TrEMBL record:
SUPFAM superfamilies: AraD/HMP-PK domain-like (SSF53639). The keyword Metal-binding applies. One of its GO terms (molecular function) is aldehyde-lyase activity. GO terms for biological process: pentose catabolic process. Pfam families: Aldolase_II. This is Aldolase. Keywords: Lyase, Metal-binding. Residues 14-186 form the Class II aldolase/adducin N-terminal domain. GO terms for cellular component: cytosol. The keyword Repeat does not apply. Signal peptide: none annotated.
């Protein structure tokens, strides 16, 4: 373990590594991106500061305080994680990723509509942070997460997304859901553009979204198992 990773967090650190590699393997991150999981009320574990898909077996992350400066070597945008953990006690895991279709849609100043099941988990709509600049200050991080509010995600125009959930499993699944919702939306936008003006997609309303955004039937767990299958450190999530 690194000097920043004390004894007693090895299982969580391993789970964060699996989540990091899983996000990369799913095409949701490339050279840039990071993920974390809450350790306790005052700290969280973030993955190593390198491309998530290249994080090796046993390569330790860093314990980061929820309040206070980032430890040496931790990426600057991890302050987004800090702000979420500080303001949302229900959140247990966070990912900052670069999902390509979500990114493309965001350049139109759009975020995915609830057109099919995965999109319903972000009702009443994914907030857009309408600024493509990197988040390098606490003030920027506070503003982005304020825009996110209680949603599971916030999309940053031309700059990827942040997804937060109660567990690592859910965080990974919801990041995939966000990108799949963007995939469907982009395809439907193309269809709408080729049709008469009266033709438009059937967007699910609040009631339909509430009914569809379920976790019963091991929906989250099955997506996690599907995406993380084959990882060399596949662990049970606490």
């Amino acid at each position: 373990m690194t000097p920043h990773t004390p004894d007693g967090v090895a299982d969580l650190d391993r789970a964060v590594r699996v989540a990091a590699r899983t996000l990369a393997r799913a095409g949701l991150a490339h050279a840039y991106g990071h993920c974390s999981a809450r350790l306790d009320a005052d700290s969280f574990v973030v993955c190593a500061a390198r491309p998530m898909g290249l994080i090796g077996v046993g390569e330790a992350g860093t314990v980061v305080p929820v309040d206070g400066p980032l430890p040496e070597g931790v990426l600057g945008e991890v302050r987004l994680h800090q702000q979420i953990y500080r303001t949302r006690p229900d959140i247990g895991a966070v990912a900052r990723t670069m999902p390509p279709r979500t990114m493309s849609l965001s350049t139109l100043r759009r975020t995915p509509r609830a057109l099919h099941g995965p999109g319903t988990y972000f009702a009443p709509g994914v907030p857009l942070w309408d600024d493509p600049q990197l988040i390098r200050t606490d003030a920027q991080a506070e503003a982005v997460i304020a825009a996110m509010g209680g949603n599971a995600a916030v999309v940053m125009r031309g700059n990827g997304a942040v997804v937060a959930a109660d567990t690592l499993e859910a965080m990974v699944a919801l990041t995939w859901y966000l990108e799949d919702a963007a995939r469907v939306d982009l395809e439907v936008l193309a269809l709408e553009a080729a049709q008469p003006a009266s033709f438009s997609a059937a967007v699910l309303d609040a009631e339909a979204c509430g009914a569809r955004a379920t976790r019963s039937g091991r929906i989250i767990e099955r997506m996690w198992e599907y995406l993380s299958a084959g990882d060399p450190e596949f662990p049970p999530i606490r």
